[in-house]
Amino acid sequence: MTPPRAARPTLAVVGATGAVGTVVLQIVSHHADIWGEIRLLASPRSAGRKLAVRGEEVEVVALDETALAGVDVALFAVPDRVAAQWAPLAAAAGAVVVDTSGVFRTDPEVPLVVPEVNPHAVRMRPHGIVASPHCTTLSMIVALGPLHAEFGLRELVLSSYQAVSSAGREGVRTLRRQLSLVAGTELGTSPGDLRRAVGDDTGPFPEPVALNVVPWAGTADRDGWSSEETALRRETRRILGLPALPVAVTCVRVPVVTGHALTVHARFENDVTVDRAREILATAPGVVLCDDPEAGEFPTPADVVGTDPAWVGRVRRALDDPTALDFFVCADNLRKGAALNATQIAELVVGDRGGGGGARGA
Amino acid sequence: MTPPRAARPTLAVVGATGAVGTVVLQIVSHHADIWGEIRLLASPRSAGRKLAVRGEEVEVVALDETALAGVDVALFAVPDRVAAQWAPLAAAAGAVVVDTSGVFRTDPEVPLVVPEVNPHAVRMRPHGIVASPHCTTLSMIVALGPLHAEFGLRELVLSSYQAVSSAGREGVRTLRRQLSLVAGTELGTSPGDLRRAVGDDTGPFPEPVALNVVPWAGTADRDGWSSEETALRRETRRILGLPALPVAVTCVRVPVVTGHALTVHARFENDVTVDRAREILATAPGVVLCDDPEAGEFPTPADVVGTDPAWVGRVRRALDDPTALDFFVCADNLRKGAALNATQIAELVVGDRGGGGGARGA
Ligand SMILES: NC(=O)c1ccc[n+]([C@@H]2O[C@H](COP(=O)([O-])OP(=O)(O)OC[C@H]3O[C@@H](n4cnc5c(N)ncnc54)[C@H](OP(=O)(O)O)[C@@H]3O)[C@@H](O)[C@H]2O)c1
Ligand SMILES: NC(=O)c1ccc[n+]([C@@H]2O[C@H](COP(=O)([O-])OP(=O)(O)OC[C@H]3O[C@@H](n4cnc5c(N)ncnc54)[C@H](OP(=O)(O)O)[C@@H]3O)[C@@H](O)[C@H]2O)c1
């Protein structure tokens, strides 16, 4: 029996007005209603705005210590610097923080959780903070986890096709603005014409992204690798519990609004068969197999946007290596890549404590 | 001393009105003027049209036996079925055929030539036909060849980001039409919205390509691999003379007009260093190294469109394998990927025969 709302845990959505926060509100409105109060927090700029959640209009309040009082679970979907400052304060005030930013993902004392793959990890959270992985990791890890469980992963080579909304609202605005500039023109056919048309207006990206692909996401890490590339390697190792897994990856931005895709070349300890791989993927939680290319069946971002699972297609055994699989995977970077995974973690946190009002006090 | 035009070899550009043919005309207009007559051939639909070449207006004639008479080198840039029918007839009439279609690339008696990598192969042409590789192969092979020569290639994992113009004029028209439909809208944010907006009007592609990426290029080959994927493997092996090279590849179409890109994970016999790899790439013919990501230097299709070389950036040693390099390479699929390579082959054929009028009679 569901307890009355007043007896249920309070959820704060911090960054409720953002690209990820907006989707969190949609998801909690459709999932089983386990929350008591749902409080919407954002910057003072948004205070007073009303947003719909569970069919009701709720007023956004500015993030401050008062707004965090009495919160059981605080789902953070704010820029890194805001998360770095406020997540520890929310935890100190008694909330379990579920953070979608990059700030805590490398902290060994903050678990990095994908509920379909390593749900147990959520319990060890000495700082009261749980991190949700990077959207690119999340877009492929639910497909990789069960294949690893069956065949034993030995090496990964990845390439990404990353949507602009993973750079937030500003990423989407930038692509839309550039698309309006290029539509109906002959741009994209002579050297530098796109760059001249777009000018310095490249938003969060280093180059024009409309009619282009940009092989650089994040900041410089080491030896020529970008921060998103090393994050994908580090997070995959950590979530799968394979600290020495060889991972090579190139992250590339593409002119897609929402929906990350990756090509995956995965080498395993044992020989693989496509039939067994398909069986595993067809039954894996959070995964949909969509794989009959001759009949036009393979996932694309346009098909998966707005959906929860990771969609897998183009499953093939490598032609020259019986231990390797190639496949293509696609997921909504705002859903499984952020809002959905974080909401699932929040639900897991509450479920682990008896599914009721005890979350905060435990 | 250059002989007078009348003494120089006759070039026929077959498919002069197409996406590739148009670029052939630009290139021969800018390269050293080694040709006598340049004859422009296309379908009867185009007969009588005038196109500019070497600063002169030349009338297009319909492809038939008369139009092929007296031709020394016939550069074919027509659909497969037209090449299959007419290339052997042109060769029988005495021309050396340089073909850009897919028809002859798998024929062991037709050399598959990249002038920077295997120029010697052009001499063995028992049928009088030389094939130019697939545009995706050409976009990366000039960078890979010299790295192989230095380090000894042992394995390749590739992912492509393929432009729509490699599907010809119809590919470009399709993307432009779809872009006009999506610009200024909110499309690309809910499941299936793009597909509904675009309708069945997907042109040569199986799915909408604007605001999307499509992991299927070509037709079904075997075991789930597409024809473009197996072609890239087969052609790379053949051009590099490595008949057993393991190659895994996923070909993906992206909403770019012109400019193919690939991510390359290359494993070699010997340990590699990034410094030595950069040195090799910086001096390799037909390659430009553009690799300082912190300063915003990496190639993108928008930078390379309309240029001749393959541009390489993001050169890194794999973090977990001292014998492996990762890099990103980008080239104009209509230039190096087709028209330029074919023109270079044509020039090689003529050069091999003394650079003069003897091409046909030799
Ligand atoms: N987008 C993705 O695909 C994705 C995936 C995984 C993880 N993430 C991470 O999720 C987080 C949010 O990303 P996003 O894409 O949703 O960004 P976004 O669209 O730019 O939204 C940012 C949110 O943070 C709020 N905010 C900004 N400054 C604040 C402050 N000083 N105090 C309180 N709230 C503040 C904004 O509120 P106002 O509206 O009031 O400015 C807005 O709600 C980031 O850490 C990002 O790295 C994003
Ligand atoms: N686009 C690329 O990036 C690329 C790269 C490598 C190789 N290729 C290959 O190059 C070839 C040409 O491709 P494209 O992209 O230039 O195609 P395209 O833009 O569709 O042009 C096709 C050309 O073939 C001519 N043609 C069609 N039917 C003919 C016939 N029955 N007799 C004579 N000419 C005929 C057309 O003449 P009309 O104008 O009179 O119809 C036109 O000039 C194809 O085999 C393609 O696979 C293309």
UniProtKB/TrEMBL annotation, chains A, B:
Signal peptide: none annotated. The active site is at C135, H260. GO terms for molecular function: aspartate-semialdehyde dehydrogenase activity; NAD binding; NADP binding; protein dimerization activity. Its EC number is 1.2.1.11. Residues 10-125 form the Semialdehyde dehydrogenase NAD-binding domain. It catalyses: L-aspartate 4-semialdehyde + phosphate + NADP(+) = 4-phospho-L-aspartate + NADPH + H(+). Homodimer. Belongs to the aspartate-semialdehyde dehydrogenase family. PANTHER family: ASPARTATE-SEMIALDEHYDE DEHYDROGENASE (PTHR46278:SF2), DEHYDROGENASE, PUTATIVE-RELATED (PTHR46278). This is Aspartate-semialdehyde dehydrogenase. It comes from Streptomyces echinoruber. The gene is asd.
